[in-house]
Amino acid sequence: MQIPVGRPKDLEKRQRILEAAKALFLAHGYQGSSMNQIARAAGVTKLTVYNHFQDKATLFSCAIEHTCEAILQEHPQVLTPDSDFTQALYQVCSRSLNIANRPEAIKLDLLLMELAAEQSPLTERFYQASHSKLHRVWNEFFSRAQQFGLIQADAPQQQTELMVSLLMGMRHHQVLLGLCPPPSQTEQHQIIQQAIEIFMLKYAPAPA
User: Fold this and answer.
1) Which ranges constitute the DSSP H helices of the chain?
2) What residues contact 173, with CB distance under 8 A and at least 6 apart?
């Protein structure tokens, strides 16, 4: 848990620090970004940065978490007992692919892989602040769908792993490696349709 340090927080400065940190981390990596650089980019003193965030690892985690929360709040999916589940699932799939293929999301994935290659103990902490948030959204979606009887019961985590695997697959690895561009809208539509078809073969509710 972050411990408040120094003078009272100023929300506007905190926001500037987070935006500066996000830009520098994505552009230069974790090791290539310093608290001094972040302070200069945010137009504040280094002490002010430390007043808001205990250390660089905390700042990086908060910057990632702040970015992910902002993206996830753009198009929230509301599921009800009367929802057309396949249509709702299509929308969540589309949202997930759009998030995963954003330039900043691709840079974040590459940054996490760089830290993992260094066997950095920070890798899991940063993963929890980013990817795990999206997985929790999926888990909650499938949990509600089960409650409403829209799909067969199973562990939501299992359903999330299946759907994410179907959506990302080999193509996303190629995108991360720079071997091919992110899928076009037409390709994305095909990926989602195939993923939903396979998912529903396993989880469609039995006919009444």
Assistant:
1) 11-28, 35-42, 46-52, 56-72, 85-100, 103-117, 122-129, 131-147, 156-176, 185-203
2) none
For residue 25 the two structure tokens come to: 């981390």
* Dist CA 97 CA 106 (whole Å): 11
Q: Letter for the amino acid at 26?
A: L
Q: For each of the domains in the chain, give its residue range(s) and CATH number, in order of start.
A: 11-68 (1.10.10.60), 75-203 (1.10.357.10)
d(CA 205, CA 43): 56
Tens digit of each residue's pLDDT (9 = 90 or more) over 178-196 = 999 999 999 999 999 999 9
Provide the whole-model pTM: 0.79
